[in-house]
Here is the input.
Amino acid sequence: MQTKIAVDKLFLIRKSFFDNLLVIKKTDFAFFLTLVGFLMAFFGSATVWFMWPLGNFYTIATLPLFILSWAISVNLENTIFEWNKRQIATLVFFLFQLYVIIVNGKNMNAVIMAFFDTSVIMVLMALNDKYRYLLGKKLSQALGFILLFSIPLYLLYIVGFPLPSTTMESPNGIYELSNYLFFVVDGSGLELIPRFRCIFNEPGHIGTACSLLLFTQIGHWRKWYNILMIVALIMSFSLAAYVLFVMVIVGRMWIFRKKIALKLIIVVGMLAAIVAGSYFYNDGDNMLNQLIVARMEVNDDGELAGDNRVTESFKAGYEDFLKSGDILTGRDYSVEKYGFGNSGYRVFIFDNGLLGALMYLLFYLSLVIGAKDKRAAIVMLAVAAAVFWERATGMAYYNIVPLFISLYPSLDKKAEEPVTSETEQKK
Here is the structure.
């Protein structure tokens, strides 16, 4: 028996087919606006070269995006926001902003900017589990996309291929860079072989950014964008970034309740082999030995040879600061007085005092409120402490955002793409 089918029905296309093609789902658009805002906050706080013109005012542009995203999403069943007790962290962040304004004697304009700056944290805390995970993924993909061009172009530059460039100087006069669009190099000419820094001001910045974003991608390191970030991290030759990444690797195994004893032995063995190889290769005259291994040696005075986070002039100023009455609220830090290249916990405490350091601690402790995995919370706090130790930018968004997302690693295995069916949205 043959089934008869009307010929005209073969060419019938439902109207809903075109509707689904032409209509942008409300939830997708709301998240897109949020993502653009976080991309600006992430790269703006890292002061990458294309964000220089905006200075510290990029959050003026992010707030309207967040407000529009909320307005679109608020009446949807699958809204991307949920208001919860994590907003305590928003309050602590705002109080820290006010504290900095008061101790530095800033004007009312700074208070207004504090509201703009705090909005980024408020929205981050409000994202539900699914979209928080997706934010980490999209940030990683965005940096991975840049690295897709940056790494091969940088390698071409290293082998002497002529590439067009321009010379740029940062608004604060600290950095002079040769800009090749997808990567920059030190424009001072002091480096024999310029270290890879992608679009960031320093190799340590790209290394730290990759380490923290990889922390959000636990369980997905084989994805193309995560592989590129691992390559970029290695190419940065940043000791601080290497230490962070080792912490993330060990923390990853512990969070997933894996038997780590044997794996730790393997990791230590591999590191020992690499260290030994750097000593003997070319009699130690190689970048790995000079920039990483040699800096881990202990001097006669008991300090690490690579402890170059501060200049000698700043060390003297810091010692004097510890004995003064300024230790509670800090002193004004000046690049002109103490030189370029100072970073780490000493700079943060010098600039913000012990009260500022206490508020830093309270902020990160408030981030773990509601965390479902205690191990993830412990590892995050350990990594945050390491970030605080190595540089004075622990309150920057490119640190805060991935560290907060990393608190929810169990979602990586079951998080889905946003539900965007128009039937599940309120009209």
About this structure: DSSP finds 17 helices and three strands in the chain. The longest strand covers residues 166-169. Residues 110 and 385 are 28 Å apart (CA to CA).
